[in-house]
Amino acid sequence: MPRIAGVNIPDNKQIAIALTYIYGIGRPLSKKILETVGIEPNLKASQLSSAKINELREIIEKTYKIEGDLRRERMMAIKRLKDIGAWRGLRHIKGLPVRGQRTKTNTRTVRGNVRKTVGSGRKPAATPT
């Protein structure tokens, strides 16, 4: 298993897909990187030579902001919004949708699938003991 930027790349997948396991690299960027290095996107990760893997690792780590640096940058941006008291920061604090989505329905993904409504029907009568 090749290891790039602290992430194990799966052997049995095409290299264009396997690179997307790295946080900050999606399909388009993956294809662009492979084009730069000169690797066929359809090759499996296990078929790459160690020289090509090292070349990939160098380009990715030097050119692009990925993994920890990218996560840290995003967290700092959110922290800044919270500190200045911006609307988006307050929405982040409350755990609600930030980008103007409706909240009467359809916020299950942000709130963590919380269901606050009561089910239909009455409770059964208590049985005497």
Write the layout of secondary structure elements.
Layout: E1 3-4, E2 7-8, H1 15-18, H2 27-37, H3 50-63, H4 67-84, H5 87-94, H6 108-111
Antiparallel strand pairs: 1-2
Can you characterise this structure?
- There is one protein chain.
- With 129 residues, the protein is mainly α.
- The chain has two domains: 3-66, Orthogonal Bundle (Helicase, Ruva Protein, domain 3); 68-111, 30s ribosomal protein s13, domain 2, CATH 4.10.910.
- The chain is built from six helices and two strands; from the N terminus they run E-E-H-H-H-H-H-H.
- The chain has helices at 15-18, 27-37, 50-63, 67-84, 87-94, 108-111; strands at residues 3-4, 7-8.
- It has a two-stranded antiparallel ribbon with strand order 1-2.
- Strand 1 (3-4) and strand 2 (7-8) form a beta hairpin.
- Helix 4 crosses helix 5.
- The protein is elongated.
* Biggest sheet strand line-up: 1-2
Number of strands: 2
Tally of individual domains: 2
| Straight-line N-to-C gap | 63 Å
CATH architecture of the largest domain: Orthogonal Bundle
Structural class, by secondary structure, is mainly alpha
Describe the biggest sheet?
2 strands, antiparallel
Would you list the SSEs in sequence order as H and E?
EEHHHHHH
Classify the fold: give the CATH topology of the largest domain: Helicase, Ruva Protein, domain 3
Number of helices: 6
For the record, the CATH class of the largest domain is: Mainly Alpha
The percentage helix is: 40-55%
The gross shape turns out to be elongated
Q: Compute the gyration radius: what is it?
A: 23 Å
Low-confidence segments, given as residue ranges, are: none
Strand content: under 5%
**Overall mean confidence score, pLDDT:** 88
